[in-house]
Amino acid sequence: MLTTTPHLFDEATRITAGDSCWQGRTSEDYWAFVGPFGGATAATIMRALIDHPQRSGDPLSLTVNFCAPIAQGDFDLDIRLVKANRSSQHWCVELMSGGEVATLATAVFAERRPSWSHQPAELPQATPFDQIRPYPKIKVSWANQYDFRFVEGDPDFGGAKKEIPASAFSKVWIGDRVPRKIDMLSLTSMSDAFFGRVFHARRELVPFGTVSMTTYFHVDAADLAAENIDRVLTVADANIFHKSYGDQTAKLWSPNGRLLATTTQIAYFKA
Question: How far are the Cα atoms of 7, 157, 201, 225, 240 from residue 161, in angstroms, in the given order?
């Protein structure tokens, strides 16, 4: 049953409008190693854009560059509409923390009109969500806000050294641990809700952080609401780890077989 009380995710991504900028506040419930969980930060930016009085259309893409750690407490969002035409809007958002830019984001919103549709990508086969045990809680608070159910690629962080790296691939159901209907905000956050691919490949936790993340949305708000879901099936992988940086790619699916979003990241690691 979906909760009717305020959800921790909505509290964590809450924003208020100011005279010259918008304000948000970090949440201990969505904290990572040295700062807030990037997915929650991206969702907070998305919420500010969706709520902005000049916004028109639905999210098409969001790129978030994590420039510096965001300090605990309040932060400001400087939101600017860069360019708009009949069908799309281009936005720039600067998140200010401690008097400096900590996160820089760009977004495209678009009016999606009826057209020819074709989805060559097919929903991966997967054991149903209800037949898989939840992944146990770990020390990082943000991860404990999600219900991870691994179909393939269970993470092994035991640190058992092997000459050949393990696969970076995983297939996993993701939902909020306290169920919440998936909307554009939670879809944005879940596009970052993957353990670092380097953790999987090395079988250990190493210093890690997302540098830049781009998410492409393949549904509008009405499409997503019609899916009426509280979980997504995700597949995530990596192509390369080299000289302290590695990529991450993922697809997020509705249980009904609809491709909701795709995401690409570049991340820093120390190993």
Answer: 40, 10, 11, 45, 19
